[in-house]
């Protein structure tokens, strides 16, 4: 068992919390990093803020691997992440696993710049590129809020299909990439077992919760206008562009990555909806 700790950045978030919990359950030492150093069962809490370099040294102390969740909503995360990664390497971190997106290639916008830099910083690395999270419809997300409030999903994705993936499955792959004898040293596109349109998602949610859910099709311009009140113009353009890409078929794919790395098939959206929304009945 590895004596050094695994630093999990974003340990209170959707994938970070699950990754930390799975690492602890497997007997690994975990430093759970968040802005408030929130305690997590079995993990050592540590304060960490991407925008406060004074928190970096304590976070990486005693860690030899790190799970990286980029700062949310930042269109240029490399500006804060790359300096941290250099400091982490100098402090003894040898393996880094970065959470990116299936919609962002190496060298692409935002976290794609960090993706490109990672192999030059660490000999052992992986970039997880999951498709859109199933938890976007069940947890803390604009879609989930809209579903709970008005029973609607608002997108400019049209009838485009997506290989939505369970955050538990992302975490399972993250644990493998962090703790396996050999790091993947590549990027990994993660999907669920099937592709679904947002209309399909609405049907499944209606069946599982017993509450009617509809997918309302927005134009690209309407989506940009809706997001404009919530985030920077650059990030609005990025997100609205992703919906347009879905409509054009960019996310209509499935991969075998989850099963190949974890030894079990990925969870379906219906399974996740039943698991996380049973109280909605």
UniProtKB/TrEMBL annotation:
Coiled coil: none annotated. It comes from the Bacteria. Residues 10-106 form the NAD(P)-binding domain. Gene3D superfamilies: NAD(P)-binding Rossmann-like Domain, UDP-galactose 4-epimerase, domain 1. It holds the Pfam family NAD_binding_10. This is NAD(P)H-binding protein. The lineage of its organism: Bacteria, Bacillati, Actinomycetota, Actinomycetes, Kitasatosporales.
